[in-house]
Amino acid sequence: MYEYLYFWSRRKNRCGSRSLCTGKRLSCGCFCIQRELKKSLPSKIKFIQGNVLNYDDVRKAVDGADAVISVDGHIQGSHPLMQTKGMQSIVQTMKAHGVSRFLSLTGTGVRIVGDRPSILDRILNITVGIVDPDRVYNGIEHEKILQSSGLVWTVVRVLKLSKSDKSFKSYELTEGGPAEMVTSRKKVAHVLVDLVEDKKYIGKMPVISR
């Protein structure tokens, strides 16, 4: 079983993923690549197929990277603790290769002090917690691992992802929400790539509010 993972390197122009675009035309990872190409990144991109739960696969992708953007998430049949175990593998590999900048995506169900979730946000996340508790647990544990990792990390949070391909003029990040109801994968990709070199949200978990 392969899991989604996207690695980005400005120096070596390397990306690694689980067949990133295959059957996932609107995936966050594909949009991350498109976003970088628009920012004048040379068009030579290397794809590395692998399993985020396999240390050697992660090592091959992280080697030579300047930053890592992870948009892995649960798919049907994936390991219940995929995100948690995958994060452990990523952190271990990044430390071994001297890569410090890390960005990832999670849901607003991962709460922190100071959050201001909307009523709908609360209702939806309570529902997810009942229907898919592993998803919420993994999000929370993944954040705990980062807290003690020593990496220069940022975790972007959204309420609900959409498959919309619509363009947008701007976006707004807040430190406590409330989150916008639906966020397109294209917007998430813009945010993640923009934050790679932005120091404002280092060690923080901003919410996409607009």
UniProtKB/TrEMBL annotation:
GO terms for molecular function: biliverdin reductase [NAD(P)H] activity; riboflavin reductase (NADPH) activity. It holds the Pfam family NAD_binding_10. InterPro entries: NAD(P)-bd_dom, NAD(P)-bd_dom_sf, Polyketide_Oxido-like. Residues 42-198 form the NAD(P)-binding domain. It comes from the Bacteria. This is SDR family oxidoreductase. It comes from Candidatus Dojkabacteria bacterium. The lineage of its organism: Bacteria, Candidatus Dojkabacteria.
